[in-house]
Design goal:
The chain has 278 residues and is an alpha+beta fold. It has 6 helices and 10 strands; from the N terminus they run ααββαβαβββββααββ. The strands form 4 sheets. A 4-stranded mixed β-sheet has the order 1-2-3-6, with helices on one face. Helix 1 packs antiparallel against helix 3. The longest helix is centred in the first third of the chain and has 27 residues. It holds the Pfam family Exo_endo_phos.
């Protein structure tokens, strides 16, 4: 059974067309492995009925993908999945763990089962931050981007005859790389054979290789990026300073400065406070 037939056995043609209509998965075969480049569905509405429908779409989207992954694995193919899954697998993956719900979120349970146990244990290794609040400065973020590898051995010291010709030598994130609200999540493959290069998808306006994008920028570009970062940091600090600046006393309708006075009268007005003109 081919991978596409595996999908056809579980999903109707209409379902597959619906799941593929948003262009959230690009699949390329590089010979040594099959690469799935994903942008997982997110729940962006607070309206309960629409949110429930979107959540169902999200679960079916990943169920269809896993059907392809499993069939490729059964055929002995190595599979690499990269991208923004829009799922936090564990409380450690968010800067606000108290708000993390697990049992009520089937997508999180699915990802935990996919990752196996233990889930990633590196703390504060976030991959996305809100740009609206400059959250990256304080690393107030979440871990929702992954590089998942199946069918290739992990060999920090390089591949060997016992492990096979191609292996995972290293993997990490690059939170210091600007340019997006997400940071790069990368894996270093060592050994051979050299993977078959994939051309740009049809309709692409330009194609920038990941190697060139991650390479060290020129000195002028680095200086400009650092200046931009410092300017953004300065603006963020100024904004927070303005927010926390203590407000002055108000003025009355005559323009006179108000002051806090204490009165000591009998009756209901005894020991009360109020702002009155000087």
């Amino acid at each position: 059974m081919a991978p596409h037939e595996e999908l056809a056995a579980r999903f109707s043609v209409e379902e597959l067309q619906e799941l593929d209509a948003e262009g959230r998965a690009v699949v390329t075969d590089h010979g040594a492995f099959v690469l799935f480049n994903l942008y997982g569905p997110a729940i962006t509405t607070s309206e309960s009925e629409a949110a429930a429908a979107r959540f169902d779409f999200k679960l079916r989207f990943y169920a269809a993908l896993q059907a392809r992954w499993d069939e490729l694995a059964r055929r002995g193919r190595a599979v690499i999945v990269v991208g923004d899954l829009n799922i936090c697998a564990a409380p450690l993956d968010t800067c606000e763990p108290k708000s993390f719900a697990l049992e009520s979120r089937a997508d999180r349970l699915w990802l935990r089962q996919l990752l196996g146990f233990p889930t990633p244990q590196r703390a504060a290794a976030y991959t996305v931050w809100s740009t609206a609040t400059a959250a990256r400065i304080n690393n107030h973020g979440q871990r929702i981007d992954y590089t998942l590898v199946a069918g290739l051995p992990v060999a920090p010291n390089g591949p060997s005859a016992s492990l096979g010709p191609l292996a995972v030598a290293a993997a990490d994130i690059s939170p210091d790389r600007d340019g997006s609200d997400h940071c790069p999540v990368w894996v270093d493959l060592a050994g051979g054979p050299v993977p078959v290069a994939a051309s740009a998808p049809p309709g692409a306006l330009r194609h920038v290789t990941l190697r060139n994008w991650l390479s060290a920028p020129a000195a002028a570009e680095a200086a400009a990026a650092e200046a931009q970062r410092r300017a953004a940091l300065s603006e963020a600090k100024s904004a927070w300073s303005r927010i926390h600046t203590k407000m002055g006393a108000p003025r009355c309708r005559h323009g006179e400065q108000a002051a806090l006075k204490r009165t000591n009268k009998s009756g209901d007005n005894k020991v009360t406070r109020g702002a009155v003109p000087l």
